[in-house]
Amino acid sequence: MSTARLMTGWEALESTRTAPDLDVRELEKRTRLMRIITRRIALSERPNRDIAHRMGISPQKLSDLLSGRVEQFTIDELKTLRETIDVD
């Protein structure tokens, strides 16, 4: 009986490690992309509302980006935003 409980506990640990929200490499990539984007925004002399409009996102979404809310963005979204931001 204790073996069955151990297997159940082990399976629970494995499912936690493979959960997409906890993938460390993915979070590192997102963080790196967010830093690049926020640096480009900081170099721009445009108002945030204008930057959000040019990037095709809402001002609230830009605020989430600038606040470092990594969980709000996928890697693909961040790559797209990186390509759309222009530095003046």
Automatic annotation (TrEMBL):
Annotated Pfam families: HTH_37
Protein name: Transcriptional regulator, XRE family
Domain HigA2-like helix-turn-helix residues, every copy: 24-80
Positions of transmembrane segments: none
Record InterPro entries: HigA2-like_HTH (IPR039554), Lambda_DNA-bd_dom_sf (IPR010982)
Molecular-function annotations in GO: DNA binding
Organism per entry: Aidingimonas halophila
Lineage start: Bacteria, Pseudomonadati, Pseudomonadota, Gammaproteobacteria, Oceanospirillales
Gene3D superfamilies in the record: lambda repressor-like DNA-binding domains
